[in-house]
Amino acid sequence: MSAELLELEMVGSVPVGSRPRPLLLLGPPGSGRSTLLFRAALAGASIVSSPRVLFLAPRALERLPGGKAAGGGAIQKIHFLYPSSFQELVQLVASLHQTLPNSPSMIVLDGLEEYLNSCSSACTAAQLVALLLDTSSHFTQKRSHLSVGCQLIVSMRFLGESGEEIEHFSAIERYFPAKLWLHPNIGKDDGLHNQGLTKLIRAQLFQPGRKDQEWIVKFDAQGSMTISPLPCKIETENETVSENKLSVSEVDTILSNSRS
């Protein structure tokens, strides 16, 4: 159920209002952004009676991420397009309302930072995101007779180190009321690799007006993904939120509970 809940939150199918909330997926290299994005696209194609989900990326995927989760008929409903430059992406998005015969239930864009690398200014970056939002809103209006609109999910590598990266983020983050942050360093020094765990990611979802949610995302050597809810820790006036790093015993407990 935990995996399905995270996917539903990303898809926008959990009731949060009359329209789905655009979601910005953020994390450093190796944090599983593309895999989670693809998993959300599969979920959208699986649970929504829609002709397609639109998946945009700078280049073709070398392999479908997610291991066994990439199988099934849902992938047939995902339409992959690979605009290779900022200008190509702008032209493509601007023409979607004319070129798509049916309104998609979801638009996902992987690797926003690669397009922004050739951006002339933060203002231009904001204009691209505004265009994506307008397109999503257009398809949501066309789907007004259905229970779910057109969700927009965008992934972006974010380290917060370079001035240009921070400038771009500051220009676009206000357009995304929901943000999913990925932290790949949990358990890093606690001997988890000795237990055969390839990678553990902590996912934190922040949405205005809703309680923050957290998950542990586990990737094995085959690329398969397991998602487990992370229990909320109670804060007091004299305590702060714990760091992203978890102990081996905490991870063992969470993963054991997810199997039961």
Automatic annotation (TrEMBL):
One of its GO terms (biological process) is double-strand break repair via homologous recombination. GO terms for cellular component: Shu complex. GO terms for molecular function: single-stranded DNA binding. It comes from the Eukaryota. InterPro entries: P-loop_NTPase. PANTHER family: ATPASE SWSAP1, PTHR28653. This is ATPase SWSAP1. It comes from Crotalus adamanteus (Eastern diamondback rattlesnake).
